[in-house]
Amino acid sequence: MNNGFPNGANTQVQSIAINGSKIFAGTIDGVFSSTNNGSSWNASGLTNEITSILISGNNVFAGTKDSGVYLSKIMEATGHQQKRITAKY
């Protein structure tokens, strides 16, 4: 379902991750999250093209096409805060 996606957003899902009742979808226009099984979606505030999403503990990692990797806590990821990872692994 695409309820809650902004009008005109490219909602082509390139990656998806699930943590309990939270779903994270990585799209060409950023990360969107749902807490109601996809009935509605919220923009995370990260608008880069997302190529991968990984959940580890309470952390959501979003890999982008050209802008590195972003880290957010799961509670923050359903709001509007992300922190960019600057350390290289």
Q: What can be said about this structure in brief?
A:
The chain is mostly beta strands and 89 residues long. The protein contains one helix and eight strands.
SSE map:
Blueprint: E1 13-19, E2 22-27, E3 30-34, E4 42-43, E5 50-56, E6 59-64, E7 69-73, H1 74-77, E8 83-84
Antiparallel strand pairs: 1-2, 2-3, 3-4, 5-6, 6-7, 7-8
Give me the CATH fold name.
Thrombin, subunit H
Strand order within the widest sheet? 1-2-3-4
CATH architectural arrangement: Beta Barrel
Q: In CATH's first tier, which class applies?
A: Mainly Beta
Q: Largest sheet, described in full? A: 4 strands, antiparallel
> Looking at the chains present, what oligomeric state does this protein adopt?
single chain
Please report the distance between the alpha carbons of the first and last residues.
Answer: 36 Å
- The gross shape turns out to be globular
Write down the domain tally: 1
Characterise the protein shown here:
The protein is mainly beta and 89 residues long. It has a single domain, classed as Thrombin, subunit H (Beta Barrel). 4% of the residues lie in helices and 45% in strands. The chain has 1 helix and 8 strands. It has one helix at residues 74-77, and strands at residues 13-19, 22-27, 30-34, 42-43, 50-56, 59-64, 69-73, 83-84. The strands form 2 sheets. A 4-stranded antiparallel sheet has the order 1-2-3-4, with no helix packed on it. The longest helix has 4 residues, at 74-77. The model is unreliable at 85-89 (pLDDT under 50).
